[in-house]
Queue: 4 jobs
Job 1
Amino acid sequence: MTVIGGASILAAVTPPLRHPAWAALILIPTLGCRSEVAPAVVHVQPAAEAPAPALPARSTREPSARAAPAVPVPEPLASAAAPFGLTMLSDGWSWTAIDRNKTRFDWSGRSAQGDREVLYSFWLPRLDETTVKLLPQLVDSAASNLTRGRPCPPFEQPPEIVELLGVQRVITVCFDPAPYMSEVFHRGVVHGIVNKGALTILVVLSHGRAGLIPLAAEIGAKGAP
């Protein structure tokens, strides 16, 4: 997806053919008893001809074109994400390397639906104890640098969501991106994703709050096993 993208936190069934069974119908009236001496007459109605089985309807739809194969994740992106405990997704996403010195981010991802852009910064390869304690403030500071307003207070994603994503911890902050962030999308979410002791900063830009729940299909990545 996405992003999911699931989420991303981000996806034809042919009905079975049925042939109705037909059977001949024979009607036999009840035998009557007469007082006069005469042989009993049995009236038998001939069996009606069984109609031919209905032929299956022939589809008038053109055969659908085969789905285009997913473009593989660029090797530099996969190599950059691996030490940070992330596996990037190819299905439903296209990826472009960007200049960190100009944008603060390393990679941009666009969903196939065109409803969001994700920006990844593989930031700290190793977190010390002090950084771990100050992680909410750190993610809040990252969001503050991307807006002209005031971000929402940082909050921890619940353990169920963190487990679904396959990482150790996620801190989230909502913000309204500054004009230089995007000319298309006007809502943003920042996630500080911790896995394997490393910190990745992820921004999701959209028309709403896409990616507020960081499921794999919604953000284009999942935790590496």
Job 2
Amino acid sequence: MDITRDASIFVIIFIVFSAYFKYKSKIIFELFKNNPSTKNTTKKKKIGLLTNELPPIIYGGVSTWVLNFIDMFKDDDEYETIPIFLAYLDKAPENFHDVYPGIRIINKEEDICHAFKDIDLCVNNLWIALDTIKKIKEEFPQMPIVSVCHSLIKMEHLTNLGSQYTNNFSQQEVTFQNSDFVVLISKAEKEYYEEFGYGDFEAKSVVIYNMYTPKYDDQFVFDNYNIDHLGYIGRHVPRKRPELAIETIRQMALDNVKVFNMGVDFNKGGNVYWKKLQEKYKDQLEIIEFTCDKKVKQYYYDNIGANVCSGIYEPFGYTVCECLDRRIPLIVSNIDGPKEITEKVKEFVYQYEVDKTDMSNDISNLSATLESFYKTSPEKRKENAEQARKTLDDYRPQKIKKEWMKLFNCCSNIGVKGIKKNVDKKSDEEKNEESDEEKNEEKENIFEPRNFKIKSE
């Protein structure tokens, strides 16, 4: 009888304690799960995004690219982008830390070590700044440097009539030599890169197109399909032939057609050339000075019926993407980046044959394209613009990001350049093994995934 009673008491106590511990365990689990400090303890890989262009400091399309890259990797589970601003030429505005949280600023050479002390990989957007790249590679020889070539300065020099601003292309070549990867933003760029002999450098070259986020998927912001006026928007440099539209309209004797040229810079030396054109074609040419004012830019779009993307060298073509996004009829050169962007939809845009050496032939070729365009009904222009816009799907960040992820997976165990620190002496056997590994690595696809070690681990 006592044994039965004791057994019953034991069972009751066991059940009570079991229920208690189960309840407490559940509470502890919930607390642990909801504690921010216990979430995602895996440390992210730090990408140092090196640049000397960030709005409001703008010299061209680089600043747009940098902002798009930051946005593309925002809230990524694996990577953290840290903008690093080189303030040698332009001082960083006082509000930079508020506008770009986590930004690091290099005011002098001594700041480099602090800026890159915990960076796993550098994505470099500097065109030259040789001493900076060399210093980074010397101080952090095991950190891969991926240099993004937004434009080949040598091509700029050859197509901009030997401009004083592009005669330093040899400095960009040194940047390539101190990089581990060079990203070209179109297939045409890679061809030029190899033609110049840059493919002989140790850096591995790869094509990754610029990312572009369409803004008007569900908005219709253009409806000038019955208007014949033309526009050119962008930098006014020789390689872009910004005067091609007005010269062609004049040769075709289309007196009722106006041309709007936006982006003329009168600050550098007064720009005598464009002042003469403005006077020469004052009845048909309206010049809009360079500005970041969105209202002025909207005025431009409100007055044109088609945009002319001319030129004899264009690495990618943000303007092409912007016009396609807005559903503006696009008259475009059949070279380089613009050709690659519009290749899939070329029957819905208005391509003209480019003659890189003869402006008069360019005028004749554009005339033929414009004759075809002006025979196109407003309804067909609108329909074509809608179809042409579909090519933008290939440049959306979610697609371009996959290409960058492939590249980042290659940034470990590569033959980095620069000064090796604390390298122990190796036996002949070890050297032979390393030599065999290097030979095998040369046969690898550069997009083959590899391990990526985090500095903080």
Job 3
Amino acid sequence: MKAFGLCGCSTTRDSAAVRRAGVLPSLLVALVVCLASALPAGSEVSSAERPGYRTLLEWESGSGSAAGVVFFRASEDQLTRRLLVETPEGRRLVLTKRLLVQEGQDRYELVDDETGWWVRLVKDYDFEVETLDEFFSRWEELLKPGEGREVEMELLTSQGLHFIATVPVAQQGETETATFAQRLLESDVGSELRDEMPEEVERGIAFLEVAFEPSASSLRALPQVLAEVVDPEVRKAASHATWKKTAEKLRYRLAPESQEEARFVAQFLSVDPTEPLK
């Protein structure tokens, strides 16, 4: 699935830039906010033209291929990252992560573009600040050793399922997510979620779990939780497919720059192609 006509490899520069963007969020935020402040006062600029970036992705294995695009934007009080992915089975999924500092929350959402089914995960840090800099300072304080440090996590679906648990704060967010996933799996909601989830979405989640390395993407938290309730055989098949990322291209604007990109984004009915992060 050469959705974007990319060459069959990642450039070192592009891959390194993506890693830096994930490892140094405060520097990235400063850059994006600086770019935003440089816009002429009163100028009318569409969402897709405002400062931000997108990353074009392609994967291949012996059993098929997949493609996606990740959009990212930062402001003084919010970080938004959204993946539009077409899975190996051709299912279109929309995975979003928003850090809302004034509410002290990380919000993850997965939407099945075909049926409209969605599942949401909210991580509540129990503090509210005004800016990203303040948030990261408080977050670092939260990670310091201390008794009773916890974060509340809540899962909801479009069909009314609801599960909430408080888990210990961990240096690695994946540890918090794994703890929450285990508690979900042990509850009645875990089996109800498996029954409610569309079959092709289940396969898509299994793919997303292996497509993103734990250290490489902040988008992985929700697929990590959902993978625990996926049919073990489906999960096993995805892990054995040996998916390889064959292209990863960073672009320093949100708007598509080719007809291939524009057509790819336009396929997603739950996303406004002119406002991909709305």
Job 4
Amino acid sequence: MVRFRRLTAESSLGGAVEGPKPYGRIARRRVERSLGRSLAILAARRAAGYPSSDYQLLVEVSGGGPSYQAFRRGWDRKLRSAGGKFALDARNWPAALPDDSRANIVLPLSPASNGHYRIGLEPIWTVTHKASLDLDVWVASSVDRWIKWIFTALSTRTARLAHPIAELVTANPRRSSGRRPLQFEADWPLPPDESATLPP
């Protein structure tokens, strides 16, 4: 079992958690098995006729220090604007993180009528203080955590999830950031839409 240590109480974004550790080959296989089981449960629900929706998962990742400060401010603004019925914000996120920490937000996006995307379900945010952790394994564990959290609450629904997009953001909004499909083996039902984003 992948174990998490909770860092804060539950928030409107599901609370902050620290990713599974240690991150070696054994840990990668554990996350692969756990994520595989989560996706298999969603597939079994679809086969049983549960109501289903499609989501593109976008995971934005930030380092600590000044990068995190910009990340938190930016997401507080975006969540207040795009959160809609979920009434989201970043007030319960840590005010600051050490330089060697990381934070991410897992966003389940649904296509909107204007050609953009909208937040389709509640996101979750996670924090780790281990800078040496394999980024893709940590992001995959965050995605697995989100699946387990949201579809335990939505026990009568299911989803088809597109291969997640991982994006590394920086403190300087003009500086290009890395964006690519998550490099982690799993049976994703849908291909990634690498252009998926929320309206500015």
